[in-house]
Amino acid sequence: MKILLGAALRKFILSLVFFLSQGLYAQPVTVAVAANMKEAFAEINVAFKTKGGSDLRVVYGSSGNFAAQIMNGAPFNLFISADEHFPLELYQQGKTVDEGAIYAIGKLALIAKNSSDMKLLDSKADLARAISKANKIAIAKPELAPYGKAAVEYLKAEGLLDLAKEKLIYGDNIGVATMYVVTGAADLGFTALSLAKSAEVSKDTNFILVNSKLYEPIKQRMVLIKGAPREAIALYQFIQTPQAKSILQKYGYSTP
User: Fold this and answer.
1) Mutual angle of helices 38-50 and 230-238, in 10-degree steps
2) Rounded Cα distance, 125 and 51, in Å
3) What is the pTM of this model?
């Protein structure tokens, strides 16, 4: 009887130690966030923690790269994309809980380095002059980044792509393309309005909001990856609250 009790007690203690160690060393929720959302998501994250949310591991990058990584088993729990295409592709491949939700509609802006003496005006003639004057024009890679794709669509629609194409330099994501202008590697660049308005970018650049009718709407969708823990689900739900939507609107996004 004593032997049986001793074995049961040892088993209970081992189970308790395992449970406590799992909690102690549990990895935080890992979130893949499109680079255009960097400033807005940082504020959303603070608000989420204030509401009792857990610490997050946040990785910023291009939506296309994230989709490829998730397809190959990268341990992300929530994918906050800059478009619909990549999340829906993951859903079709059985990688996500469901189709997710559109959380924001992004807007495309054109920025110019202040030291280039370019003051941007929203007319085709003025844009043509700015493109002609520019040494380099930065955009995100269209095949990876929805804002880069929108930039190409806009230039084509305005009939300015041929004028610009020899000057284009490409960033892996919209954050990299934006920093090309901030650092002076490019005189002009296409970016997200949210980044154009950020303190880091606006102190060195000026911007115009380009005509949204000249590119496909940038509907930004997020999806939970299968097996996502409850903390990731809580964040997913929080991003759809009025508080989070107010933050997104502050950074220039429209919200559903």
Assistant:
1) 110
2) 49
3) 0.83
Neighbours of 187 (CB within 10 A): 23
Helices (H), the chain: 2-25, 38-50, 63-71, 85-92, 124-133, 146-158, 161-164, 174-182, 193-196, 199-202, 230-238, 242-250
Per-residue pLDDT reduced to its tens digit, 72-88 = 999 999 999 999 999 99
Q: SS3 breakdown of the chain: % helix, strand, coil, rounded to 5?
A: 50, 20, 30
List the end-to-end C-alpha distance of the chain, in Å, as a whole number: 65
Question: How many angstroms separate the CA atoms of 128 and 192, rounded?
Answer: 20
Instruction: Give the pLDDT confidence of 27-51 residue by residue, as tens digits.
Output: 689 999 999 999 999 999 999 999 8
Q: To which residue do tokens 């549990």 refer?
A: 26
Distance CA 146, CA 82 (A): 6
